[in-house]
């Protein structure tokens, strides 16, 4: 199993807009073969932080979904990111 977890930082004034632009990707991920869970959420304390959590059956299913990653527009809104991928055994 693969877990992707961490945080993204965006302009606090555009965080809601950023998350709204991610809804389709979240919906698509959740119905993708191999996706166990996928969410991006506003942090309740830090106004510029978005929490990331993804759970996948395998690295292959993660990469099949992810493709080239976020759109250029979304990537341009990310000011800082601290996201890591973990392989969970057993």
What report would you give on this structure?
The chain is α+β, with helices and mostly antiparallel strands and 90 residues long. It has one domain: Alpha-Beta Plaits (2-Layer Sandwich), CATH 3.30.70.100. Helix content is 33%, strand content 36%. The chain has a four-stranded antiparallel beta sheet with strand order 2-3-1-4. The mean pLDDT is 92.
Summary of the model, kept short:
The protein is of the alpha+beta class and 90 residues long. It is built from three helices and four strands; from the N terminus they run E-H-E-E-H-H-E. 33% of the residues lie in helices and 36% in strands.
Outline the low-pLDDT stretches. Answer: none
Looking at the structure, the CATH topology is Alpha-Beta Plaits
Strand order of the largest sheet: 2-3-1-4
Silhouette:
globular
Task: Give the helices and strands, then pairings.
Elements: E1 2-9, H1 15-30, E2 35-42, E3 49-56, H2 59-66, H3 72-77, E4 80-87
Antiparallel strand pairs: 1-3, 1-4, 2-3
Note the main attributes of this structure.
alpha+beta, Alpha-Beta Plaits, single chain, four-stranded antiparallel beta sheet
């Amino acid at each position: 199993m693969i877990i992707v977890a961490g945080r993204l930082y965006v302009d606090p004034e555009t965080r809601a807009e950023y998350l709204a632009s991610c809804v389709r990707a979240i919906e698509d991920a959740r119905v993708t073969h191999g996706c166990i869970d996928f969410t991006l959420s506003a942090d309740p304390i830090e106004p510029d932080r978005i929490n990331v959590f993804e759970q996948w059956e395998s690295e292959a299913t993660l990469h099949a979904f992810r493709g080239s990653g976020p759109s250029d527009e979304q990537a341009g809104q990310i000011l800082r990111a601290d996201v890591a991928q973990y392989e969970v055994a057993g």
